[in-house]
Amino acid sequence: MIGSIAGDIIGSVYEHSQIKTKDFPLFHPRCIFTDDTVLTVAVADAILTGCPYQLSVREIGRRYPGAGYGGSFIGWLHSDRPQPYNSWGNGSAMRVSPVGFAFDTKNEVLKEARKTAEISHNHPEGIKGAQATALSVFLARTGHEKEEIRMEISQRFGYDLKRTVDDIRPTYSFDVSCQGTVPEAIIAFLDSRSYEDAVRNAISLGGDSDTLACITGGIAEAFYGDVPTTIRAKVHECLTPDLREITEAFCRKYIS
Fold it and tell me: What CATH number has the domain bearing residue 24?
């Protein structure tokens, strides 16, 4: 989970100023957490407390009105009667990593990932993106090799994971869909040598950088183990007290 949040923070300055290189300062002075972090923490809070996902996401999401939500999600967040709006956006995938850390079977992970998505992103692609991300985290943390993860995710969800980061980078552009984000984020992990290298891969694609790095970062943390101390310290510095408290409680229970 720290890996997802760190990816969001590192990628935040490149969301609207994309780059096509892995050579960049890991933490730019203007790095901040965005909606990816807020909603990831909200999902973690729901798992910790047993609160329905919708209630936790709306309650914590409303605390941070300027976090960078999409227009449709803002409407949902503040609606008196929120209903899913058939979104295929990558918001369902960016917030789901806690599911991959907290649940202990494939079936549980897939079921809970669906539940986190369908409160708002109930389009089949929105649900698939959340499930693929959460299952990748689960497989990575339970000792599966990269080729096993590649095969399981590509066969189950139909994603083309035979490409490489170098294949994708030249023509890839900003894309907020699950179908145009999740496979690329998984490939950024599969092509990596370390947690940091995975996040650099994701950002170097030149797309929706904070979300790509958030998705990749969660999988990379699960695979490589603990996020480097310097990166953890920066996350601690960037988070507000309430988000930090939930994050630390979740990590103590499910990751540490």
Answer: 1.10.4080.10
- Can you say whether the dihedral through the CA atoms of 142, 156, 205, 126 is positive or negative? negative
Per residue in 127-142, pLDDT (tens digit) is 999 999 999 999 999 9
| pTM exceeding 0.70 | yes
String of DSSP letters for 43-88: HHHHHHH---HHHHHHHHHHH-TTS---HHHHHHHT-SS-------
Decide if pLDDT at 226 tops 90. no
Distances (CA, A) of 177 to 40, 181, 182, 207, 208: 18, 6, 8, 11, 10
**60, two tokens:** 């914590």
Domain of residue 120, residue span: 2-254
Query: How far apart, in Å, do the first and last CA atoms of the chain sit?
Result: 11
Predicted confidence band of residue 16 (pLDDT cuts 50, 70, 90): confident
